[in-house]
Design a protein that fits this description.
Layout: E1 2-7, E2 10-15, H1 22-29, E3 48-51, E4 54-57, E5 70-72, H2 74-77, H3 85-92, H4 102-117, H5 136-142, H6 153-167
Parallel strand pairs: 1-5
Antiparallel strand pairs: 1-2, 3-4, 3-5
Helix pairs in contact: 3-6
The structure holds FE2/S2 (inorganic) cluster (2 copies).
Residues 37-40, 42-47, 57, 59 line the site of one FE2/S2 (inorganic) cluster.
């Protein structure tokens, strides 16, 4: 099937089997291998990308469902020459060990700060009327879809806090 995806600001026409996931379309059709296939079951978050501004496990959604959608992958968040603030904070705080989960963690963490800024509540937000605070509980809840086998969590939390404080 023919679909059109806008990925990291570039339009791509793809001819995909209807069973192709967005993760496989990105990795195998477009050569964007930053998004990782950790579990292929929606359990680890290594494949997290942003679709139309929302975080999504790209292993769980079919490419044909996203015709004309706007996708941002880790390659669109920053580059080795020009790290995004979140990428730089992960380096500064040593927020990874093997690094396999890192692209998903950084996509998610970047979106978490945007979600907080927009005032979107999470499951642990007490006050649904006021702005959500960046407590440890909020960070843990909002990042709970991203697992790290190396358990770099304390440093990941430090990196997220660092970027949030610099933005404030
Ligand atoms: S690879 Fe998609 S959640 Fe694990
Ligand atoms: S740094 Fe290894 S899985 Fe997260």
């Amino acid at each position: 099937m023919h679909i059109s995806l806008r990925v990291n600001g570039e339009q791509h026409m793809l001819d995909v089997d209807s069973r192709t996931t967005i993760l496989d379309a990105l990795r195998n059709h477009l050569g964007l291998t930053g998004s990782k296939k950790g579990c292929d079951h929606g359990q680890c978050g290594a494949c997290t990308v942003l679709i139309n501004g929302r975080r999504i496990n790209s292993c769980l959604t079919l490419a044909v469902m996203h015709d004309e959608d706007e996708i941002v992958t880790i390659e669109g968040i920053g580059s080795p020459e020009e790290l995004s603030p979140m990428q730089a904070a992960f380096v500064r705080h040593d927020g990874y060990q093997c690094g396999y989960c890192t692209p998903g963690q950084i996509c998610s963490a970047t979106a978490v700060l945007d979600e907080l800024e927009k005032g979107w509540p999470s499951y642990v937000t007490d006050d649904l009327e006021g702005a959500a605070q960046l407590t440890d509980d909020e960070i843990a809840e909002r990042m709970s879809g991203n697992l790290c086998r190396c358990s770099a969590y304390p440093n990941i939390v430090d990196a997220i806090r660092d970027v949030a404080e610099k933005r404030a």
